[in-house]
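User: I'm putting together notes for a lab meeting next week and I want to include a structural view of one of the chains we've been expressing. I don't have a solved structure, so I'd like a prediction I can at least talk through. The sequence is below, exactly as it appears in our construct file.
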Amino acid sequence: MTVYRSEFLRTLSERGFINNCTDAEGLDALAAAGAITGYIGFDCTADSLHVGSLVPIMMLRWMQRTGHQPIVLMGGGTTRVGDPSGKDESRQMLSDAQISSNMAGIRRVFTQFLSFGDDVARDGVASSQATDAVMVNNADWLDRLEYISFLRDIGRHFTINRMLTFDSVRMRLEREQPLTFLEFNYMILQAYDFLELYRRRKCVLQMGGSDQWGNIVNGIELTRRIDQGAVFGLTTHLITTASGAKMGKTANGAVWLNADRLSPYDYWQFWRNAEDADVGRFLRLFTELPLDEVARLEALGGSEINEAKKILANEATRLCHGAGAAEAAAETARRTFEQGAAAEGLPTVDVSAEALTAGLSVVDVLVSAGLAASKGEARRLIRGGGARMNDVALSDEAARLSSADVNAEGVIKLSAGKKRHALLRVVD
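Assistant: Thanks for the context. Below is the predicted structure for the 428-residue chain, given as structure tokens.
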């Protein structure tokens, strides 16, 4: 492992973030000499990011914690084009209103992880301290481009020959999947982002996942050719679980970072259910625990590894949703799994007393509670013995719930397997 002089690169290296760097020695020397500014871009394709974006978010957080300035670049302009990297088909075109709405949702994520100055928190523009995080929107410059002038000034620095060698283009063509001219321009626009941020913010570093390496190198070369700027690129590994699953995806869908898309309890449960082999790596990447404590926790064996998983869940949830939400989620899990009680904080479905008296299909309720994606899946869950009501296995697919099933706490507890639960609450 390379030994870095700067606290920034040393921290990223020791915690397992770094995959590749264009000039590690030069970047290390610059970061050791004083504060630098770096950025990561996030396109606005949904109204929340998911845990697949946590690695770049944590890189920005460590950048700020080690005395440097992070820039969050919102892709208000590039979202209208679509990044072809790693995609087999063109991205769905979003309206400007959808992009604006998605951007507002994503903004909320970063206020949990980064410290913005008072002015930044209010209007996203000014910054009062050297290390205050800054949020900018690339639509501010991309929307103002004059097409012919842009082609003459910027486009002439890119050759079709080289662009065809990049994975994002080559893989799409090899699979005979259409690549639109619009998407083909994405790498030029992303490169131009780096040039603009270098000019506007003296930004010298772009970071991103390893799938962004080609786009990042393009921006570095463009900035050096036009402004002779000394800029750098750094990528991180694309994270998968020990079993090879893509980070951020589960059988129930994406693990969103916004509480209105995924409850803090379900977020806590995602980390609590991590595979044993992932615990140490996830503690290094997704928490700020000291490395000696991480080493102690990942060395635990047998059932003790579950305590390490609880700590992982607590720390990851604290960063994303706050200490109060993490404590509440942990208490809900403790009461549910250790005391067998139907604790508050579990996903809840409200039903009327009238509907319950008439009888509710258990299959329909399992779907409504999010414990099954379809009626067919709910029936298979029951047939396989994985569905339970008030901790008692269900065996009849035609069963109907009634007011007699309401427990002493005034709810009906439904379960799918050992780790997924929901409550049915009767309302007037």
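A couple of points you could mention at the meeting. The chain has a mean pLDDT of 86. The longest helix spans residues 96-113.

User: Perfect, that's what I needed.
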